[in-house]
């Protein structure tokens, strides 16, 4: 039984002076503007990272109320920055099972009212207590992975900065991106250290934002006035909570496992994926995802960026939206912001940055690659 | 883990089924679900990777260094007392005060 995405919406991402409720409404209104009839929605699944930022839990009810969807089934799912894609996975499972005909996946995070220290601490909750109590921040984890990768495979800080340069350039064409400004490798190399070798420009920003994706059965999809995109696979995998417990610190086992399951279920191969939105929370991670998805061999992912292969004009465009780095990274919303972009890409409506792709992959991750959610999508 | 720290020890687990070592100790192997036995973490190890942290959660005074170190078959994350290390450097772990709490940290040999 096929499962389809029949519409999506996203708020503008950035430093916003409104809360989660307003951000979700903004994203939802774009979905309604596409011509979707909201009466088909039977359930609402909401991805949110932390209750710290707004001193709020019960986001399922909050969103259901904010969108006028009470008394429908609604609840929150969480896997740190993978929460958004996990909400989509939950919606997919609900529709696939036949229990509901249409479900709304929602992702949201309101972060910028909190200090950098508060955000750093809230994100550290995604790691093991041995990491937390030793002062290993999330950027420090990615930094240690990056340093080990550079040591083993000869990549340089400049190679990693090239990921940021590419994604910033892409975001110039995205009217809803947090940063619509091109940067240079030199600016990135000179930016201040967060956790060496990671610098400010290697890191995704702290952002506010929301995104929604409507998932429906084939029967409902046929009645919708909107473009339909088929969800060929929706898979989840996990890896150790502490990076330290991995035999290879530079291998994304959760992404590779979820991707292998997704390729198997869909019949697609890495070659068939024509565009991807991936979890570049830090530049090193985009490179490692190329390898875990099978776009490049182990230790060679950074060469794809050097060659321009993953630029908008390249043979394997990655992060046409600007990625987490430049579109922005409102934690709980990110997984759905990725799928929002891919929905536009597959419908040919990513104006100014259309790739013409017919098949797409989304990779959303939580913790330091401790949970991975992969979606494979195809234009109908 | 805290009862071992109180004895000045770091104790990991070794699986009776798959043979892998992990940290901290648990009765269930984190890799295969097999039964695991407690095993002391060797005192001396080698730095696999490290980072100097400039942005913290406010509880740790910046800048400071953290590392992942291999002690025999065990790998541990930790705070590096006294700063700079390089990949391959030899360090030892110690139990002591870290930011006001009993914890462990690494020191260059």
Q: Could you explain how this protein is built, in words?
A:
The complex is a heterodimer of chains A (380) and B (109). By secondary structure, chain A is an alpha/beta fold. Chain A is 37% helix and 18% strand. Chain A contains 14 helices and eleven strands. Chain A has helices spanning 20-33, 59-66, 83-97, 116-124, 129-132, 138-153, 157-171, 185-190, 218-223, 253-266, 283-293, 301-307, 323-326, 334-346; strands at residues 3-10, 43-47, 73-77, 102-109, 193-195, 198-199, 209-217, 229-238, 275-277, 359-366, 371-379. Chain A has a nine-stranded mixed sheet with strand order 3-2-4-7-1-8-11-10-9, sandwiched between helices. Chain A is globular. Chain B is mainly beta. In chain B, the strands form two sheets. Chain B has a five-stranded mixed barrel. The longest helix of chain B has 5 residues, at 2-6. Classes of the chains: A alpha/beta (380), B mainly beta (109). The interface between A and B is medium-sized, with 35 and 34 residues.
